[in-house]
Design brief:
Order of helices and strands: HHHHHEEEEEEEEHEEHHHH
Number of strands: 10
Shape: globular
Oligomer: single chain
Helix content: 40-55%
Largest sheet: 4 strands, mixed
Length: about 400
C-alpha cells in the first residue's frame, strides 16, 4: 500500500462545536474503524462494538433534540459526520444513516410520552435500529406492501415479511410499516417493534457483492403483538411518515456515497504520485492527471449538492427535490469515481490487496438503496412537470 496519507477534507462548518465534532469523528475513524475495515468486510463481520462506541460518543442521535438524548446538530453537520464515517468504512456510515432513519418516525411523529419512553435509549443507549418498508413483492412500489396489522383490543397483531432490511436480525428495534386499512398509501400505519418481540425472526442474511459486513436480511413477523402505545402517528399516516423519512434518508445515502468516493479518490491520488513508470510518477502523465481532476470535481460537486439540500432542510424549507437530486448525483458520481480509481491503479486496482475494488463494489448498492436512481429521476421530474398522466 502507498504510504502517502490523504489530506483531510477542508470542511466549511458553522460552529466551533461542529469542528470539534468532526475532529472527534476523524479520530474514531482513524483509530477504530479504518484499520479493520478491509479484513472485517472480507470476513463479513459487523462491528457492533464500533456502534457501541459511537453511541457512547453521542454520534447515533446527532440530528435529534438534546432533550431526548440527541445531539441537536443541523443536518449540514450530521451529514458531514456520515461522510467521514463512510470514507473509513461504508458499513459504519450506512449503519448510522439507517439507524437515524429508523429513529425518525418516533422523533418526528411520536407523542411526547412515546419520545420520553423510547428515544433516550434509541439515540444514546447503545441500541441499534432498522427500517422496515420494502417487501419481497413491493420495493419501488412501496404503497402496495402486504404486511398487515390487525387491531386486537389495545394491541396490534402484525403478520408479514419485510425484505432488504439493513441490520435485519441484529437490530434492537424495527420501525415497521404495515397495512391497517384499505389498499393504497392511505391504509398504512407505522409501528415501533422491539427486536426481541415474540414472533419476529430474520432469515439468513443475503450474500451481497459488497457491503458484506452490514447484514441485509428478510424480517418475518409471525403474529407479532405490539401495544397500541407503539403505534407511531395516526392510523393511515404511515406511508406519509415513510416518505418523509426517506427524504432525509436519501441525504444520508448521498453523504455516504461522497465518503466512499472521497476514499477512492484519496487512494487513487496516493497511488498515482508514488507509482513510477517510464522514469517518473504516473501522476505526471496528462491523461491520468485529467482523470484525477475529473474525479475530484465530481466529489466536490456532490458534496456541495447534498449540503445545499441539508441547509434547506435546516431552514425548514422544502427539500424533497434537492434530496432526490443529491441522492441521484452523489451515488452516480461515487460509481464513476470508484470505477476510475480501479483504472488508475491498473492491475492492482483489481486485487483485494488495495481498497479500490471494495469501494467500487460498495458504491453500486448506493444507486439502489432508499429509492433506486430511476425512482429519484421520477421524483425530480414530478417536481418539475407535475404527476404523470395528468
Amino acid at each position: 500500500m502507498p504510504d502517502r496519507a490523504p489530506q483531510p477534507v477542508d470542511r466549511q462548518l458553522p460552529t466551533d462545536e461542529a469542528r470539534d465534532l468532526i475532529s472527534l469523528v476523524r479520530d474514531i475513524a482513524q483509530r477504530e474503524i479504518a484499520p479493520h475495515a478491509a479484513e472485517e468486510e472480507d470476513a463479513g463481520r459487523f462491528p457492533r462494538e464500533v456502534f457501541a462506541l459511537l453511541s457512547e460518543s453521542g454520534l447515533l442521535g446527532l440530528p435529534y433534540d438534546a432533550g431526548c438524548g440527541g445531539g441537536e446538530q443541523p443536518y449540514e453537520v450530521y451529514l458531514q459526520v456520515l461522510e467521514e464515517l463512510a470514507a473509513a468504512r461504508l458499513t459504519v456510515g450506512l449503519g448510522v444513516s439507517v439507524h437515524t432513519l429508523a429513529s425518525y418516525a418516533l422523533a418526528a411523529y411520536g407523542t411526547k410520552e412515546q419520545q420520553t419512553e423510547h428515544l433516550p435509549a434509541m439515540l444514546g443507549g447503545g441500541l441499534l435500529g432498522a427500517y422496515c418498508l420494502s417487501e419481497p413483492a413491493s420495493g419501488s412500489d412501496a404503497a402496495s406492501l402486504r404486511t398487515r396489522a390487525v387491531r386486537d383490543g389495545d394491541d396490534w397483531v402484525i403478520t408479514g415479511t419485510k425484505a432488504w432490511i439493513t441490520h435485519g436480525g441484529i437490530a434492537d428495534f424495527y420501525t415497521v410499516m404495515a397495512r391497517t386499512g384499505a389498499e393504497g398509501p392511505r391504509g398504512i400505519t407505522a409501528f415501533l417493534v422491539p427486536g426481541d418481540a415474540e414472533g419476529l425472526s430474520a432469515a439468513v442474511p443475503e450474500k451481497k457483492m459488497g457491503l458484506k459486513g452490514s447484514p441485509t436480511a428478510q424480517v418475518h413477523l409471525d403474529g407479532v403483538r405490539v401495544r397500541d402505545a407503539r403505534r407511531l402517528g395516526a392510523e393511515g399516516q404511515g406511508f406519509a411518515i415513510a416518505l418523509s423519512a426517506l427524504d432525509s434518508g436519501r441525504l444520508g445515502i448521498a453523504a455516504c456515497a461522497i465518503g466512499v468516493a472521497q476514499a477512492a479518490l484519496d487512494a487513487a491520488v496516493s497511488y498515482a504520485v508514488e507509482r513510477r513508470q517510464f522514469g517518473k510518477p504516473i501522476s505526471d502523465f496528462q491523461g491520468l492527471r485529467f482523470m484525477l481532476a475529473d474525479m475530484a470535481t465530481q466529489v466536490e460537486a456532490g458534496r456541495a449538492l447534498y449540503l445545499t439540500a441539508a441547509r434547506l432542510r435546516d431552514a425548514g424549507l422544502p427539500f424533497a427535490k434537492q434530496a432526490a437530486m443529491a441522492k441521484l448525483h452523489c451515488t452516480d458520481a461515487a460509481m464513476r469515481v470508484t470505477t476510475d480509481a480501479v483504472q488508475v491503479l491498473g492491475g492492482y486496482g483489481y486485487t483485494a490487496d488495495f481498497p479500490a475494488e471494495r469501494y467500487m463494489r460498495e458504491a453500486k448498492v448506493l444507486q439502489i438503496v432508499e429509492g433506486t436512481n430511476q425512482i429519484q429521476r421520477m421524483v425530480i421530474a414530478r417536481h418539475l412537470a407535475g404527476p404523470e398522466g395528468r
